[in-house]
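Side project, low priority. Logging it here so it doesn't get lost.
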Amino acid sequence: MFYKLFHLARLCIGLGFAISADAAFGVFIARGLAYAFDKQLTWLEYAVAAIIALLPDFLDVGYQALIQKRVTGAHKSVPHKPLFMIPAATLAAMIVCWYWDLSALWIWLTPLALIAHLVHDSIEQGPGIEWGYPFGNGTHYYVRNKNGVLCWTMTPAEIAHQYTITMRGWIEREYLHLTVNLGFNAVMMVIALVVIFSSKPPLF
């Protein structure tokens, strides 16, 4: 029982580090837009900005868990298709802002945070992002160093291999050991907290 709880705690910590960079991007964009709109953001609004930046992952994991019954963390469903996700989410933000009379800041933040997330996914991990979907030929763009050569796309064999990796295996490999991804995400998390605290936001 203790071992299972310990293992679960490790995975939760790893997952926290895994999502921290994208959440931080949401915070950075929110802070920049708050300055542009001369608006004081609250802790709650910073949290909402982070959640918006993480939407592709939340929706993809939900889809995989409910429909496919197997969570891999791979970017293969609609929330990670930029030409669909960005316009759809931006339209949703426009409707929400109009209905509840919210600041236009959120209409700008939504596409910018999603673009930051998807660009990050095109660099940080495979299988990359299908930036051309549904008009492309299924090419996954993932920038990486491959045998000393900078590569932009993945082969079908590489994509197939990525889809065999579970989310647990990915977290164990990248965020529960000292890796570049762990270091980068930890630094982004610290900077995001500094950004939030320096703005001295109210709670609500």
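Brief comment: Residues 141 and 181 are 18 Å apart (CA to CA).
Revisit when time allows.
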